[in-house]
């Protein structure tokens, strides 16, 4: 999808078995960093990881237990891996086993215990701000496990919108994983660990490795179209805002087991950078509605300035079909279509035609994908930016409620009721 800034996608690998999973997990986007996940807790550990970009530091350990899952309102780590899977469990007992194993390994890894393939006793513990976020797709709620009557209200296979060119091998899945950390090798180690622990229960469907570009010189990050991305988001510190736009609450009419969860929209969107680079700067800025250098709206000076649409009803300063104006018109009527964007860039080398394969793995979290993401997407249909980006994959998923304590596990409230 496209948002208050541009989006992109990731060319992914489709795998048919555990061997391909491990081979896929061994190749991470970007160069290897100095360290990834680490060993057990130690009192000498730093309480926070120091960021390279001037942002507030992340906690060394992102708390695992809670009413909501980590990795949604958690400040973005520098690296992320996204993947969709098909569940191979043959019955409900196998599904319970799968979720229990994922819960156990997530609890262990996010606490700082290293995966077996990375264990070196002499290394100092560095938990790496790891978070692992688990979602389920509409296809999980078929007749295999008796879940058909318990599906979240708005969960369905992601539809193809008019500007999409979705590739089936890069779409959907019974289960989604978002793995975020401060170093790219941590993503690989987690995938390898989960592949070992869930052997015979999961089959990879697609995967995307992604990262954040440094903030230059400050403020929001830039995508590979050169514009700052993610300037405007809901206030994650406001429980009122989050309960209105993000989390499933009793008033949403969802199944009881879903309370505390939310919907995840993943969009793999490729940038056509060769075509974009031939566009004059002034036209690029009119397409977005923002200054490329500062990120400010075309009628402002700073990236945080709100555009004055009411003073510009005919679009003389910020075009009526500019990306930011279509994505967020800033009216009372469209306010409920806002959602949280937590996206990452990708670089997948060159394609067969010798073109650079760059883009954005768009990740949006929300309470209702039809009211929010799909409504915004329809406003963006055939926008000028659509000539330079192509959505190629992704899916709709429901992020399970958080794991409350050491006795709880992912999906427990859903599967214990059956």
TrEMBL record:
It is found in: Cell envelope. Involved in the recovery of exogenous heme iron. Extracts iron from heme while preserving the protoporphyrin ring intact. Its main location: other. This is Deferrochelatase. It comes from Streptomyces lydicus. It catalyses: heme b + 2 H(+) = protoporphyrin IX + Fe(2+). Residues 221-403 form the Dyp-type peroxidase C-terminal domain. Its cofactor is heme b. NCBIfam families: Dyp_perox_fam, tat_substr_1. Residues 69-211 form the Dyp-type peroxidase N-terminal domain. Residues 43-63, 299-314 have a biased composition (Basic and acidic residues). Keywords: Heme, Iron, Lyase, Metal-binding, Oxidoreductase, Peroxidase, Signal. GO terms for molecular function: ferrochelatase activity; heme binding; metal ion binding; peroxidase activity. Its EC number is 1.11.1.-. It comes from the Bacteria. Binds 1 heme b (iron(II)-protoporphyrin IX) group non-covalently per subunit. Belongs to the DyP-type peroxidase family. One of its GO terms (biological process) is iron import into cell. The lineage of its organism: Bacteria, Bacillati, Actinomycetota, Actinomycetes, Kitasatosporales. Residues 39-67, 293-314 are annotated as: Disordered. SUPFAM superfamilies: Dimeric alpha+beta barrel. One of its GO terms (cellular component) is cell envelope.
């Amino acid at each position: 999808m496209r948002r208050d800034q541009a989006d992109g996608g990731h060319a992914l690998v489709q795998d048919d078995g555990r061997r391909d999973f491990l081979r896929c997990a061994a190749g991470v986007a970007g160069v290897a960093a100095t360290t990834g996940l680490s060993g057990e807790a130690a009192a000498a550990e730093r309480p926070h990881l120091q960021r390279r970009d001037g942002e507030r530091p992340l906690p060394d350990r992102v708390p695992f237990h809670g009413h909501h899952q980590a990795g949604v309102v958690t400040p973005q780590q520098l690296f992320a891996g996204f993947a969709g899977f098909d569940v191979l469990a043959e019955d409900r007992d196998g599904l319970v086993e799968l979720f229990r194993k994922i819960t156990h390994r997530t609890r262990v890894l996010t606490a700082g215990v290293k995966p077996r393939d990375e264990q070196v006793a002499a290394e100092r513990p560095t938990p790496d701000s790891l978070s692992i976020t688990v979602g389920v797709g509409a296809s999980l709620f078929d007749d295999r496990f008796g879940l058909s009557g318990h599906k979240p209200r708005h969960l369905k296979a992601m539809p193809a919108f008019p500007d999409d060119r979705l590739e089936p091998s890069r779409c959907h899945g019974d289960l989604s994983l978002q793995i975020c950390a401060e170093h790219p090798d941590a993503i690989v180690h987690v995938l390898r660990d989960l592949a070992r622990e869930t052997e015979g229960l999961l089959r990879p469907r697609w995967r995307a490795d992604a990262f954040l570009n440094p903030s230059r010189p400050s403020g929001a990050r830039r995508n590979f179209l050169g514009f700052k991305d993610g300037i405007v988001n809901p206030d994650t510190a406001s429980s009122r805002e989050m309960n209105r736009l993000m989390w499933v609450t009793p008033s949403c009419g969802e199944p009881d087991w879903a309370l505390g969860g939310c919907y995840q929209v993943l969009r793999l969107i490729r940038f056509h950078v060769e075509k974009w680079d031939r566009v004059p700067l002034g036209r690029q800025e009119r397409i977005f509605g923002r200054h490329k250098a500062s990120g400010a709206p075309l009628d402002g000076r700073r990236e945080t300035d709100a555009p004055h649409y009411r003073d510009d009803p005919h679009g003389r300063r910020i075009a009526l079909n500019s990306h930011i104006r279509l994505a967020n018109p800033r009216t009372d009527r469209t306010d409920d279509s806002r959602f949280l964007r937590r996206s990452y860039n990708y670089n997948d080398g060159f394609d067969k035609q010798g073109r650079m394969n760059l883009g954005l793995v768009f990740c949006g979290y929300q309470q209702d994908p039809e009211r929010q993401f799909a409504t915004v997407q329809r406003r963006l249909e055939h926008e000028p930016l659509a000539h330079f980006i192509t959505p190629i994959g992704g899916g709709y998923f429901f992020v399970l409620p958080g794991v409350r304590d050491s006795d709880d596990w992912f999906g427990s409230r859903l599967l214990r009721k059956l």
